[in-house]
Amino acid sequence: MLVYKAAYQFVEDGWVMAQVLDFPGAVTQGKDLEDARQMLQSALVDLAEASVDLGNPLPKPDPTLTDPDADIEEPIYFLFEAASQVKITPIRSAG
């Protein structure tokens, strides 16, 4: 399990900006804190899957990172499980 750091900033009209400080590109927003948390979880999964698909390593968590503009910082726990799927295609005989 990897433990990244999530940061949330409350902006106008109740919206919440969210980012994973130590996973570049993991940035989103939500209509409230809970929505922002869910959106950030989804963004993190999508970015991690894309990174792995491209053969890139996942960023290393850096617990020292902080955002001075954040209203809340908290750990975001990421468990990435690898799986494989095999499909057997029968060989068609000519004839």
Description:
The model has no long low-confidence stretch (mean pLDDT 89). The radius of gyration is 18 Å and the shape is elongated. 22% of the residues lie in helices and 26% in strands. A hairpin with a 5-residue loop joins strand 1 and strand 2. Strands 3-2-1-4 form a four-stranded antiparallel beta sheet, covered by helices on one side. It has one domain: Double Stranded RNA Binding Domain (2-Layer Sandwich), CATH 3.30.160. It has one helix and four strands. The relative contact order is 0.27. By secondary structure, the protein is of the alpha+beta class. It starts with a strand and ends in a 17-residue tail after the last strand.
Strand runs, count:
4
Side by side, the strands of the main sheet go 3-2-1-4
- Would you tell me which CATH topology applies? Double Stranded RNA Binding Domain
- Runs with pLDDT <50, length 5+? none
Terminus-to-terminus distance:
53 Å
CA gyration radius, whole angstroms: 18 Å
Task: Describe the main β-sheet briefly.
Answer: 4 strands, antiparallel
Structural class: alpha+beta
**What percent strand?**
25-35%
Helix segment count?
1
CATH class type: Alpha Beta
How many structural domains does the protein architecture include?
A: 1
**What's the architecture in CATH terms?**
2-Layer Sandwich
Mean pLDDT: 89
Estimated helix fraction? 10-25%
Overall geometric form: elongated
